[in-house]
Design a protein that fits this description.
The complex is a heterodimer of chains A (147) and B (148).
Chain A: H1 2-19, E1 22-29, E2 34-41, E3 44-48, H2 66-83, E4 91-98, H3 104-111, E5 121-126, E6 129-130, E7 137-145
Parallel strand pairs in A: 4-5
Antiparallel strand pairs in A: 1-2, 3-7, 4-7
Chain B: H1 2-20, E1 25-32, E2 37-44, E3 47-50, H2 68-85, E4 93-100, H3 106-113, E5 123-128, E6 139-147
The chains are: A alpha+beta (147), B alpha+beta (148).
Amino acid sequence: MKQFLVSFILLGVVAAPVRAQEREMILPVPQSAYSQAVKIKGGTLVFLSGVGPADEKGVLAAPGDFPGQVRATWENMRRVLAKAGGSVDDIVTMTVYTTERRWGEIFTNMRKEVFKTGYPSSAFMEARKLKTPGALLEIQAIAVLKE
Amino acid sequence: MKTVMLVLVVFLLSHLETSYGQELKKEFVDPVPQESRSTAVKVKGGTMIFLAGHTASLPQVNVEHGNFEVQFKRVFDKIKTTLSQAGGTFDDIVTMSVFLTDLRYIPEFNKLSKEIFKKNFPAVTFVEVSHLARPQLIMEIQPIAVMP
């Protein structure tokens, strides 16, 4: 009986970590606020449509003002992720499209304020045009919600 | 004694189920039916398929690639073939990056994609690029699918 109890407890200890979600940021680049890779197992994935600086009604925030549009984009990102039951900390990877690549440094500096628990992987590139007229950036993200 | 064994077996099975039972759960967050897309798609479990960017490119060079509608249909035909090789269908697409050489095609794109996605709209990101792999190409679509 005791033996079974012991194996019962042991089994619980051994089997439990399989269910827990592990997230590992590989080769973080803190000066640009991203990681070369993010390793993760388990959890619920959230694929987001491109998020830009326009609000729910499609009204563009901060026309011509890149930092203002970055702030608005992250606010919108927070809103969408909250609806999916998550937060920006759940983002594992993102593709950042901007209409002018010279804004890269401003973007990465501002990203340091967004992520508190490790940086997602990221790609940054210049697009000729984005969906919302006047938008200077758009972020396409994938998140994995914490269990 | 028997009861303990039984409990142990049930316990083991329940753990196996949660560890390996990859039953698919999908949720479409804030769908935008007029654009046949969702703001986000939430997925748990299932088998993922990461597709390459698909274009209307033909094996023969210098073949007429046609107008937007022709290219759209050819691209989705090829996506369908790729998905079916993997055992999937259009319904399994959860997100796609749509690269266009002119974003003024978006209304036409949405009109045509309504015929492909009747419900369960994927997340979509449109990006205008100056060039694709070949001069005649006006669109490239890179989807991710999750099958049961």
